Amino acid sequence: MKILYICTHNRCRSILSEAITNHFAQGVIEAKSAGSQPVGEVHPLSLTYLKEAGISTQGLQSQSWDEFEDFAADIVITVCDSAAAETCPVWFGNSLKIHWGLSDPSKLDGSDEEKADAFRACIEQIKQRVLNLKTLAAKKLSTAELKAELEALGAK
Fold first, then answer.
1. Catalytic site residues?
2. CA dist 144 to 18, 61, 86, 140, 147, Å?
């Protein structure tokens, strides 16, 4: 199964989702991430807290969704509300589209400890979704069944 995570700037939540999915669903799911308006750099705290969690940051980069036309994602998951509202490229047409809203820990204006807690909570939320997603990937679900299960995971 191939998943493309989308966030407008592709610097935090979609990057976290890509790295966590590839770490915990290795061999079952291949994940990439991209943005509609990528900023060109990964948020430094995304890298810090992924490393803290023991998750590889190798190869992570902020990039445009235009670079993934040939990736042929089975599922496209938006992780920020603004990306969910955007008009997707026509080549997403064959992919199942799901929205898994996540709070943006990089936008928190607080102490270093509050920021750390926000990143750790976001990473844990993504991890739980990915572990459930890995279980779903092993099942032989119809497209409608898979969509319903994915939407339920995104509500958690």
1. 7, 80, 88
2. 24, 32, 23, 12, 5
Residue 147 contacts residue 43 (beta carbons within 8 Å): no
pTM of the model: 0.91
pLDDT (tens digit per residue) in 99-153: 888 999 999 899 999 999 999 999 999 999 999 999 988 888 888 888 888 888 8
CATH topology of domain 2-150: Rossmann fold (3.40.50)
Which amino acid belongs to residue 152?
Answer: A
24-43 pLDDT tens trace? 998 899 999 999 889 999 99
Q: Domain spans of the chain?
A: 2-150
